[in-house]
């Protein structure tokens, strides 16, 4: 099968408006481009510039992955949500110091001057030191998607569990690619969209743990932190994997549990 990577980026002046990422076969290219244009113009803010890039993946080898297993936590407050996130990160091997530092940075806007980044921070899972080459932009993971069969299965599963928002499916795909990166320990994310306050902590070890509240509604700060093992990381290799290795998710993961974050922290979660 011949595959293409299609990426969309819409901005208004210098502000990011929306983005999308697909890997599709040649006969799906035109339809995918139409969907992306609709998405770029479907936001409250009209874009002043939309770029769509189509790359032939040619002979590049697609890495086939199974999506991370899913746990959904409900939290009563942002504080509880953030505590649950730090707990999950701890299970994955991130020190409390590094985890709280990332929470603090995402809460304030991780780019210099309290701005949001277009990509992710890379953080030493032990010390919390930031290692991404560009602290304004961060590192953007690209070239990942669901296969059509896996997309249908995960869409049905998430819909059935009340998580049918398109963001969850896309975030799960991105989190799956990131979790399989060389020397990656875990990831933390919440959106900068002021209308979307859920987020997740994810890792190969814990799966994808969705957390219902990681920020107050109306807050437009957010971002992603990728925690790495400093002893084994080859930063260039990691950045190259995130940006260029095509990844197709061909199997959905398992649904593990939906529970209150307090219950989760108490440890009634022998399966995670
Ligand atoms: P979103 O979930 O799309 O609202 O994105 C939240 C934040 O995650 C953004 O502000 C970026 O900092 C970061 N981000 C979004 N997409 C990517 C990506 N493909 N790779 C790395 N970081 C990303």
Layout of helices and strands:
Blueprint: E1 3-12, E2 15-25, H1 29-40, E3 49-56, E4 63-66, E5 70-74, H2 78-92, H3 96-108, E6 120-124, E7 144-146, H4 148-160, H5 166-179, E8 184-190, E9 199-203, E10 207-211, E11 223-228, H6 235-244, E12 247-251, E13 255-260, H7 261-266
Parallel strand pairs: 4-12, 5-10, 5-13, 6-11, 7-12
Antiparallel strand pairs: 1-2, 1-3, 8-9, 8-11, 9-10
Helix pairs in contact: 2-3
The structure holds adenosine monophosphate.
Could you characterize what this model shows?
With 272 residues, the protein is α/β, with parallel strands linked by helices. The protein has helices at 29-40, 78-92, 96-108, 148-160, 166-179, 235-244, 261-266; strands at 3-12, 15-25, 49-56, 63-66, 70-74, 120-124, 144-146, 184-190, 199-203, 207-211, 223-228, 247-251, 255-260. Strands 6-11-8-9-10-5-13 form a 7-stranded mixed sheet, with helices on both faces. It has a 3-stranded antiparallel sheet with strand order 2-1-3, covered by helices on one side. It binds adenosine monophosphate. Residues 116-120, 138, 140-141, 171, 174, 189, 191-193, 222-224 line the site of adenosine monophosphate.
